[in-house]
Fold this sequence. Notes:
The chain is built from three helices and 20 strands. It has 283 residues and is mainly beta. The longest helix has 10 residues, at 34-43. The mean pLDDT is 93. Residues 23-283 form the Carboxyltransferase domain.
Amino acid sequence: MLTVLTPGPLATVQDRGRPGWASIGVPRSGAADAASADLANRLVGNRPEAATVEITAGGLRVRADRTVLVAVTGAPVPLDVDGRPAPLNAPVTLPAGAVLSLGLPRAGLRSYLAVRGGIDIPPVLGSRSTDTLSGLGPDPLATGTRLAVGGLAADEPVVDVAAVRFPPADPVLRVLPGPRRAWLDPSAWAALTTQSWTVTADSDRVGLRLGGPRLHRVRDDELPSEGLVPGALQVPPDGAPVLLLADHPVTGGYPVLAVVVTADLPAVAQLRPGDSLRFRPAR
């Protein structure tokens, strides 16, 4: 059992999400930076479906009620156990009664805490993930939340430390043409793939609103709602694109100019308000 002493700005339980329910309007959700969450599970020897804690902007403090093996990955944060520094991207033994504390990330936005056995929350539609858009899954963590440890441990971990690069500054994301590129002026694609963009404060797990040149549409009529995927770049009437993330709605009526390739989405999940990014056509 882990007891939350301080949740930080936002901490949620996340696993690989709820695929297969889009037909009834349920988003997939799941870890925004799936690569970091998967790494945390591998470091403690969990099965891939084990749930982790996604920590936004650090600040989480948890106490172990019994000795557990944990690992923290993702955005690099100062990490300590009872005030003594602990390594990132490595298994860490947390003795009974010890307190694990995360500071503010030096880069990136989201960190992931895995405990051997996984976080044991009753699943909803096959997933333990908190979906901030639909409200499915457990509430965000709060002071006093008690997190049971499950039985999703696999083989004993054999990695002492994983070599992980810092989240890239000013990442360049690969994009494919979206299904409604023809709804935008031809200059929109050129602007998207040649100009620099900035993440605005109006961003969350649903999506990132981007600041930059206005992308002009050639059609003003309404588009019937159609399916959406993570990484889709929607263009609302104001011309400011929205890059959809893990908790995006399953349908939408704004034209999709482009889609970020799946392999680049972990970098998107680590972008903070004020960060810059660029896009380039995938080849």
